[in-house]
Amino acid sequence: MFAPLCKSLLLKIVEQGGTIVRRSLILTAAVLGLAASTSAHADDLKVALIYGKTGPLEAYAKQTETGLQMGFEYATKGTMMLDGRKIVIITKDDQGKPDLSKAALAEAYQDDKADIAIGTTSSAAALAILPVAEENKKILIVEPAVADQITGEKWNRYIFRTGRNSSQDAISNAVAIGKQGVTVATLAQDNAFGRDGVAAFREALAKTGATLATEEYAPANTTDFTAIAQRLFDALKDKPGRKIIWMIWAGAGNPPSKLQDMDPKRYGIELSTGGNILPALAAYKGMPGMEGATYYYYDIPKNPVNDWLVAEHQKRFNAPPDFFTAGGFAAAMSVVAAVTKAKSTDTEKLITAMEGLEFDTPKGKMVFRKEDHQALQSMYHFKVKVDPNVAWAVLEPVRELKIEDMDVPIKNKR
């Protein structure tokens, strides 16, 4: 826009003399200075969030978005500026569908010129978009999808993950409930999330000395668990010692409550599952004393980042932060730490900066493992406590399972 004006002024210099020439020179210098100043002004730092804002996991997605925004606010001390650039979050709803997710990420990189992308909610959708990051040679931070394949066999060097993986879920739960003399049966969704979760749990449970009796899988839209529960009960009821059904489930269906209603205690069978969002924890009130392991519960971690998140979230929304709010917050913190260290959004510089990067989160320190870019992090062994003044079950901490307490396998082929 400045070139035609500058050309016009220079023509005047040639054609005219005296005062007009001097004034034209001054004006030309001013315009050229403005042009230089404008071109030097940094572009926005664009972060694309691909998530299932509508669909079966929309509650998770909305928490991720809230956490991401709050994480950037905290990490930039409210300025929303990073490396001299304004952070702009571009959101794209993939509805949890792999084909829509691929299109959304490609659009974010190619049309919106996103520097970094974060997503997505569904493991199936996340697996579909991994090649898109590789094709575009751009960083994708996976949050909150958990399938092991994401940082395992389907991984590529542009993929980092702040979300926990199935192995971290499974190992922490196996450590929490698995002991010599314990027999366990599993129930999971028949998808990448469920099958990866059980595979990792099976491997981790074997190291505890516990026995795995059987595995059951059901479609994610299952609402009637009667036949499945009976098969699980039959597999466990005659076993000696402690007997536990461990469940891994996301979204609707609520198998813990459905199985609890069928009175497994008559066979001496206990139920166990990992943590969940607060609305789902309401159902845990019917299972006082149940043990498991969780990724996050707002009242467990004790550190300045979590203190700020809990207080600020309560102030803004009149509710504590939830499971995936912490995840979105962690993703934002990782972006700020990475760009600050790299002093750039150049992909290769970011990869160098992010491999082995330690960064603060509401859960404390996380570190991107160099080998597979999985964020190693604490998990929390809990026991359910019922408080009549709280709408959900309170997850009372038994112990923090730190990074060194969990032997999380490297499953990629780097």
Notes on the structure:
Helix 12 packs across helix 13. The strands form four sheets. Strands 2-3-1-4-5-6 form a six-stranded mixed sheet, with helices on both faces. Strands 8-7-9-10 form a four-stranded parallel sheet, with helices on both faces. Helix content is 41%, strand content 21%. Strand 12 (358-361) and strand 13 form a beta hairpin. The protein is built from 13 helices and 16 strands. The chain has helices at residues 3-15, 18-40, 58-75, 98-110, 123-136, 166-177, 192-206, 226-236, 255-260, 278-281, 304-317, 323-342, 347-354; strands at 45-51, 81-82, 85-93, 116-119, 139-142, 159-161, 182-189, 211-218, 242-248, 269-273, 291-294, 358-361, 364-368, 375-376, 379-385, 394-401. By secondary structure, it is α/β, with parallel strands linked by helices.
Q: What's this, in brief?
A:
The protein is of the alpha/beta class and 414 residues long.
Helix-strand string: HHEHEEHEHEEHEHEHEHEHEHHHEEEEE
Look at the helices and sheets and give the structural class: alpha/beta
The CATH class of the largest domain turns out to be Alpha Beta
> Architecture of the largest domain in CATH?
3-Layer(aba) Sandwich
Question: How many β strands by DSSP?
Answer: 16
Low-pLDDT runs of 5+ residues are 1-41
CATH fold-type name of the largest domain: Rossmann fold
| Number of self-contained structural domains | 2
Largest sheet: 6 strands, mixed
Residues in helices, as a percent range: 40-55%
Estimated radius of gyration: 26 Å
What name goes with the CATH superfamily of the largest domain? Answer: Response regulator
Main sheet: strand order: 2-3-1-4-5-6
Estimate the strand proportion: 15-25%
Count of helical stretches: 13
The separation of the N and C termini measures 49 Å
Mean pLDDT: 90
